[in-house]
Amino acid sequence: MNKISVEVFGTSHSDKIGVKINGLPMGASVDTKELQSFVNRRKASNSNFSTKRVEPDKIIVEKGIKAGEITGEVIASIENKNTRSNDYDNLKYIPRPSHADYGAMLKYGIDYNLAGGAEFSGRMTAPLCIAGGIVKQLLKKNHIEIFAYVSGVGGIKCTSYEDKKFTTEELIEVSKKKLPVFSNEEEIVELFDKCAKNQDSVGGTIDCIIRGLKGGIGGALFNGIEGKLSSYVFGVPSVKAVEFGIGTKFAESFASEVNDCYRYNNDKVELETNNNGGIVGGISTGEDILIRATLKPTPSISKPQHSVNMKTKENVDIEINGRHDVCHAIRAVAPIEAVVAIGLWNFLSEA
User: Fold this and answer.
1) Closest Cα partner for 5 from 346, 330, 291?
2) For the chain, which residues score pLDDT lower than 70?
3) Are 101 and 307 in contact, with CB atoms under 8 Å apart?
4) How many CB atoms are closer than 10 A to CB 26?
5) Which of 178, 140, 192, 150 is nearest to 292 (CA)?
6) Which of 18, 129, 255, 287 has the fewest CB atoms below 10 angstroms from its CB?
7) DSSP state for residue 25 in the 8-state scheme
């Protein structure tokens, strides 16, 4: 297993966006229909909580996959067909709050073209899904599967891996839903309606489960699984925190309550609980790897907000128009699976 490199190109409002992938195993099979279905999971829908920028997101394989087999460097792209750069004309020198605009202006200059968020946009997770979708298929051939779902929105907590161990069939079924949650769907839709009426947005959490990874993989300190995988999860725009297992709940718990204890079941050692999320000391235990990502609210909202004009050096108030999601977390489920797959593949290549 060789380490792969993933290079995403294009911007939110360029003619096309895409990805170059090097290091994939030559001759490995790729189901392009399954890959397209995976990429489609992050597409905008016609629901009231999704952006009205609906793109077809048809994958164009330019190089590297022939007759369903990897033949070398893979280059694949997606055309941008529904851009409206003029929505951003009045914000050319005005950094939008909680966007990458201000940092980008400091790095590249105030004339840098940030229409649609440029390369910092969530739009760029579409080509990430191409790369991650291919790697997911390769990992599945090695009996490792990756699943994700929304576990909470705006303080509404849905059924999650903390409540039960989901069957593989349940995880597959939830991935097919427009709103990929196991519970509280009506309550969440009501919250989204409220946000839309109030010209606001809301954050959420996504749980990701790696199933099938054997125990004994990883290492201490900087060689641990958590550090390696979390760096990839932070590659998804809007992710602000990553936890494993019960995560921050350890801080309010006693060891006697949350320690994962061991028992023999015939000749096999089993854990009675999986609060550590399948990783202890940076090394896998053989249980499901449990990851939770927290995503901030979509920063583009129509409510008045304070900002500055970097050219005139004046304080200004802005209202952001355009087409935006009420909650990023809903469409970020597939991208989370994608980056976890890439990160895991590269971790295993070094293990």
Assistant:
1) 346
2) 45-54, 82-88, 322-323
3) no
4) 10
5) 150
6) 255
7) P
